[in-house]
Amino acid sequence: MMGYTGFWGAVALICAVWVIFDVFTKQKKMSDGEKIIWTICAVIFNIFTAIIYYLVVKRK
């Protein structure tokens, strides 16, 4: 059975994959530098990056 660590790890992975997928498939106007920064942040700060990405980019 998955504990809290496994649950939050799965949530973090889903958030990182969502941000990276969205950056490279849906954000055609975004520069390559911005895409790299979002990708690095998604890998390092998964959940926080997903929240910030949603508030800053997706709500436009």
Helix and strand topology:
Elements: H1 4-26, H2 32-44, H3 46-58
Helix pairs in contact: 1-2, 1-3, 2-3
Describe this structure in words.
- The model has no long low-confidence stretch (mean pLDDT 92).
- This protein has 60 residues and is mainly α.
- The protein is elongated.
- The chain has one domain (4-58).
- The chain contains three helices and no strands.
Features of this protein?
0% strand; mainly alpha; 82% helix; 60 residues; 3 helices
Shape: elongated
Mean pLDDT: 92
Distance between the termini: 40 Å
- Count of DSSP E strands? 0
The portion of residues forming beta strands comes to under 5%
| Cα radius of gyration in angstroms | 12 Å
Estimated helix fraction: over 70%
Q: List the total number of helices.
A: 3
**Major sheet:** none
Describe the structure in brief.
The chain is mainly α.
